[in-house]
C-alpha cells in the first residue's frame, strides 16, 4: 500500500497537507523544510516544481516559483535533493506538484522512475488532461507506484466528479472556489454548500480541500467536510518572511492544527 | 522539405489534435469553460443567423473583402508575379478584427457578459476593445508592463474605446505573461466571462476556432485570384508567423492543394543563433505552452524562454499547434528573417510601391528572393498590418530616423 493510502486508512480526518516550492527561499532549503514540516506535525507534503508560467497560481506562488528558478532549481536538481530522504527518516507521504512541460522535457518514464527511487508517493500535474493521462501516462505511473491526484472545482459537473473518482487514487484535490491559488476569500457559505454537496456524493476516494485555507479557522472548517485540507500560499508567505525556519515553521503548523482532532473519527 | 505522406489531414481531429499537436492542457478550473466552447462552437458558427451577422459585419463594418493587389514593381524586382493581400485595410488596421468579430458574436450566444483578452503589441487588444465597444460589452485587456511602455499609442486607443488595460507585472512582463494573466482572470471569473484569444494558440477549440474566423483571408484570395489570373491557386503563399493567426487564415483554403507551396516566416531577431531570436521552429522543441502541445522555445528544464524580435507582433515563444503540424509534416516551409532584413524589405516596399508595411509583414517580404519563385509563378504575400499602429517601438523609430537622415 502506498504511503498516501496508508495515511488515510489509519487517520481518516484532520489531515494537513502543506505545499511549498522547491528551492525557495534558498535553493538548498528543500530537505530542511521537509524535515521540519514532518517534526512539526504536517501529515503529508506537496513539493512544487517551479515553472516559468504557472497559470493556476496567484501572485504569492508565482513569485516563489520565479525566485526558485532564479536560485537555479530544476526538476533534475529537486530529484537529486530528495535522494536518501526515506533513509534519513522522512516517513510522511510526499507528492510532487507541477506543470507538465518540465516533466515532459525530463521524460515521463525517467521522471516516474526517479520519483519511485527517491520515495515520492504521488503526483499533481494540474494541466495534464485526463485523456492524456489515461491513454499515455497511467500505465507508467502505476508501474512505478505513483498515485495521480486530480482536482475538482465548484464548476466541475457531477458526472465528471464521478469519472474523476473512478480513475483517481490517493485523494481528490477539492478546489474550494473559482480562483487561482492564494485567494483571500476564506471559506464562505457558498463553499460550504459545495463541500456538503461533494461530501454527500459518497466518493470512494478521500478528499482534501485546498485554495483559501490559511489558518486554524479555515482549516477546521474544511476538515468538517473532508478528510483534511491543503495550505499553500499562506505557508509560502511564512517562508518568505521567516528569519528562522526552525521556529517559524513549527509555530505556523501548530497554530493551524491547534484543537486538531487528528486520528479521531469525527 | 520532407516528402509528404499521403492522406495527412491538416484539419483538427475530433480530440482537438493536429497530428501530435494541440489538445487542451488546462487545469481543472478552466475545464468547464473550455468544454462549453468545445461542445458549442461549431453549432453556433454554422447557424445561419450567426453567419449572416458575421458576414454582414465583415463587409460593412470591417470593410471586406480587402483588396488583392498586384504589386507590379515589386514583381519586376523579384522576377515573378507578386500579389499583396491588403489586410492592413481592415477596420482597426489588421486582420485581428476578423477573429474578434467572430468571437464577440459567439460570446453573446454563450450568454457571456464580459470579455477578457491578452495583447502583445496592442493590435489584438485594440481589435477586442473595438468589438466590445460595438456590442456594449465590458472589456479587460491584459498587457505586459514592458509592452504598455513600448506601445503607448495602442494603450491610448484601447482606453479611448472604453477598455480597461491591466498590466501583467510578473515574469518577463510581455505577451506570454499577459496571456497567463488573462487565463488567471478567466479562472477567477468562469461563469460570466469569455476569453478572446488573439491567435491560433491556446487549448482546443481555440486554434481551430480562430483559424476558421481568419480563413476568410484565403477564401477571398481564391475568388480574387480566379478573377485576376484565371486560376484560384497561386504557386506560393507567404505569411509571417508569431502565434500564426494570419498565416493560418492565409493557408487555410490551400492546405489540401499540394501544388500551392506554403511558406511561413518567423522572426530571427538579431540572428537565429544570436541568443536574441523568436524563430520557434529553429530553436524550439515539442512541449506544452498555454494549453496546447506544440513547438516552443524552452530551456533544457522545460522553462519557457523569452523570445526576441524587433517586431512586437512576432515575439511569442511558441507557434499554434496547426503550424507545428505543418512544420513537422513538411506541408509548410519555415524560413526566418532577421530584424535588419525585415527593415530593409519595408523600405524597399515603401519606395517602389508607395506602401509602408509593418515590421511583421516585412518579415514575409524579406524572404521573397529565397523561395525560388520564377517568372511564371504567382506569389501571394499576406500583408497584415498598417504600419502606423504597430512597430512603434522607440528603437524602431530611432532606426527609421537614422536611415531617413542618411
Automatic annotation (TrEMBL), chain A:
InterPro entries cross-referenced by the UniProt entry: Aldolase_TIM, RibuloseP-bd_barrel, Trp_synthase_alpha_AS, Trp_synthase_suA
Highest taxon of the lineage: Bacteria
EC identifiers of the protein: 4.2.1.20
Enzyme class: lyase
Pathway entry: Amino-acid biosynthesis; L-tryptophan biosynthesis; L-tryptophan from chorismate: step 5/5
SUPFAM superfamilies xref list: Ribulose-phoshate binding barrel (SSF51366)
Keywords: Amino-acid biosynthesis, Aromatic amino acid biosynthesis, Lyase, Tryptophan biosynthesis
Catalytic activity: (1S,2R)-1-C-(indol-3-yl)glycerol 3-phosphate + L-serine = D-glyceraldehyde 3-phosphate + L-tryptophan + H2O
Active site, renumbered: 46 (proton acceptor), 57 (proton acceptor)
GO MF annotation: an example: tryptophan synthase activity
One of the record's GO cellular component terms: cytosol
Family: Belongs to the TrpA family.
Assembly with partners or alone: Tetramer of two alpha and two beta chains.
Biological role stated in the UniProt entry: The alpha subunit is responsible for the aldol cleavage of indoleglycerol phosphate to indole and glyceraldehyde 3-phosphate.
Stated name of the protein: Tryptophan synthase alpha chain
Gene this chain is encoded by: trpA
TrEMBL record, chain B:
InterPro entries: Trp_synth_b_CS (IPR006653), Trp_synth_beta (IPR006654), Trp_synth_beta/beta-like (IPR023026), TrpB-like_PALP (IPR001926), TrpB-like_PALP_sf (IPR036052)
Domain Tryptophan synthase beta chain-like PALP as annotated: residue spans: 63-379
Catalysed reactions listed for this entry: (1S,2R)-1-C-(indol-3-yl)glycerol 3-phosphate + L-serine = D-glyceraldehyde 3-phosphate + L-tryptophan + H2O
Sorted UniProt keywords: Amino-acid biosynthesis, Aromatic amino acid biosynthesis, Lyase, Pyridoxal phosphate, Tryptophan biosynthesis
GO MF term set: tryptophan synthase activity
Residues recorded with modification N6-(pyridoxal phosphate)lysine: 96
Necessary cofactors: pyridoxal 5'-phosphate
Entry EC no(s): 4.2.1.20
One cellular component term from this protein's GO annotations in UniProt: cytoplasm
Known pathway: Amino-acid biosynthesis; L-tryptophan biosynthesis; L-tryptophan from chorismate: step 5/5
Free-text function comment from the UniProt entry: The beta subunit is responsible for the synthesis of L-tryptophan from indole and L-serine.
PANTHER family cross-referenced by the UniProt entry: TRYPTOPHAN SYNTHASE (PTHR48077:SF3), TRYPTOPHAN SYNTHASE-RELATED (PTHR48077)
Subunit structure: Tetramer of two alpha and two beta chains.
Entry similarity comment: Belongs to the TrpB family.
Name recorded for this polypeptide: Tryptophan synthase beta chain
Amino acid at each position: 500500500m502506498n504511503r498516501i493510502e496508508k495515511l488515510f486508512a489509519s487517520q481518516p480526518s484532520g489531515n494537513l497537507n502543506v505545499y511549498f516550492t522547491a528551492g525557495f527561499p534558498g535553493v538548498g532549503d528543500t530537505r530542511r523544510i521537509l524535515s521540519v514540516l514532518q517534526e512539526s506535525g504536517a501529515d503529508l507534503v506537496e513539493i512544487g516544481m517551479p515553472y516559468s508560467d504557472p497559470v493556476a497560481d496567484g501572485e504569492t506562488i508565482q513569485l516563489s516559483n520565479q525566485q526558485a528558478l532564479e536560485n537555479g532549481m530544476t526538476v533534475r536538481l529537486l530529484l537529486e535533493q530528495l535522494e536518501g530522504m526515506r533513509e534519513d527518516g522522512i516517513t510522511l507521504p510526499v507528492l510532487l506538484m507541477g506543470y507538465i512541460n518540465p516533466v515532459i522535457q525530463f521524460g515521463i518514464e525517467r521522471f516516474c522512475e526517479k520519483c519511485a527511487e527517491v520515495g515520492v508517493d504521488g503526483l499533481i500535474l494540474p494541466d495534464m488532461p485526463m485523456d492524456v493521462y489515461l491513454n499515455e501516462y497511467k500505465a507508467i505511473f502505476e508501474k512505478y507506484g505513483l498515485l495521480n491526484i486530480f482536482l475538482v472545482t465548484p464548476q466541475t459537473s457531477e458526472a465528471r466528479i464521478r469519472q474523476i473518482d473512478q480513475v483517481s487514487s490517493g485523494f481528490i484535490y477539492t478546489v474550494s472556489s473559482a480562483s487561482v491559488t492564494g485567494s483571500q476569500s476564506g471559506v464562505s457559505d457558498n463553499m460550504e454548500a459545495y463541500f456538503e454537496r461533494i461530501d454527500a456524493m459518497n466518493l470512494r476516494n478521500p478528499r482534501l480541500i485546498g485554495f483559501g485555507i490559511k489558518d486554524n479557522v479555515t482549516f477546521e472548517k474544511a476538515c468538517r467536510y473532508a478528510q483534511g485540507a491543503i495550505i499553500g500560499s499562506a505557508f509560502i508567505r511564512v517562508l518568505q518572511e521567516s528569519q528562522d525556519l526552525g521556529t517559524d515553521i513549527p509555530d505556523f503548523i501548530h497554530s493551524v492544527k491547534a484543537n486538531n482532532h487528528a486520528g479521531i473519527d469525527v | 522539405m520532407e516528402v509528404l505522406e499521403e492522406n495527412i489531414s491538416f484539419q483538427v481531429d475530433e480530440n482537438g489534435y493536429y497530428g501530435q499537436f494541440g489538445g487542451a492542457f488546462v487545469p481543472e478550473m478552466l475545464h468547464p469553460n473550455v468544454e462549453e466552447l468545445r461542445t458549442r462552437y461549431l453549432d453556433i458558427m454554422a447557424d445561419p443567423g450567426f453567419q449572416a451577422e458575421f458576414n454582414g459585419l465583415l463587409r460593412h463594418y470591417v470593410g471586406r473583402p480587402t483588396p488583392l493587389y498586384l504589386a507590379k514593381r515589386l514583381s519586376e524586382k523579384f522576377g515573378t508575379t507578386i500579389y499583396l493581400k491588403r489586410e492592413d485595410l481592415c477596420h482597426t488596421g489588421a486582420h485581428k478584427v476578423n477573429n474578434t468579430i467572430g468571437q464577440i458574436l459567439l460570446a453573446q450566444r454563450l450568454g457571456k457578459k464580459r470579455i477578457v483578452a491578452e495583447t502583445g503589441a496592442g493590435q489584438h487588444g485594440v481589435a477586442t476593445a473595438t468589438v466590445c465597444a460595438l456590442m456594449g460589452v465590458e472589456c479587460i485587456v491584459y498587457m505586459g508592463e514592458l509592452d504598455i511602455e513600448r506601445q503607448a499609442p495602442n494603450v491610448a486607443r484601447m482606453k479611448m474605446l472604453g477598455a480597461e488595460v491591466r498590466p501583467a507585472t510578473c515574469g518577463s512582463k510581455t505577451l506570454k505573461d499577459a496571456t497567463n494573466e488573462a487565463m488567471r482572470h478567466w479562472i477567477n471569473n468562469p461563469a460570466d466571462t469569455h476569453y478572446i484569444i488573439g491567435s491560433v494558440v491556446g487549448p482546443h477549440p481555440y486554434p481551430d476556432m480562430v483559424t476558421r474566423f481568419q480563413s476568410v483571408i484565403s477564401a477571398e484570395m481564391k475568388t480574387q485570384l480566379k478573377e485576376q489570373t484565371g486560376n484560384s491557386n497561386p504557386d506560393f503563399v507567404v505569411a509571417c508567423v508569431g502565434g500564426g493567426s494570419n498565416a493560418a487564415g492565409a493557408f487555410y483554403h490551400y492546405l489540401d492543394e499540394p501544388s500551392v507551396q506554403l511558406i511561413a516566416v518567423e522572426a530571427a531577431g538579431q540572428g537565429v543563433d544570436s541568443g536574441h531570436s523568436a524563430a520557434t521552429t529553429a530553436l524550439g522543441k515539442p512541449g506544452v505552452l498555454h494549453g496546447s502541445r506544440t513547438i516552443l522555445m524552452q530551456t533544457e528544464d522545460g522553462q519557457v524562454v523569452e523570445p526576441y524580435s524587433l517586431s512586437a507582433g512576432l515575439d511569442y515563444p511558441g507557434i499554434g499547434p496547426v503550424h507545428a503540424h505543418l512544420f513537422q509534416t513538411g506541408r509548410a516551409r519555415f524560413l526566418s528573417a532577421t530584424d535588419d532584413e525585415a527593415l530593409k524589405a519595408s523600405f524597399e516596399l515603401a519606395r517602389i510601391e508607395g506602401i509602408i508595411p509593418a515590421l511583421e509583414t516585412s518579415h514575409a517580404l524579406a524572404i521573397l528572393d529565397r523561395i525560388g519563385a520564377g517568372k511564371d509563378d504567382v506569389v501571394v504575400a499576406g500583408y497584415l498590418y498598417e504600419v502606423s499602429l504597430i512597430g512603434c517601438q522607440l528603437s524602431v523609430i530611432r532606426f527609421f530616423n537614422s536611415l531617413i537622415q542618411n
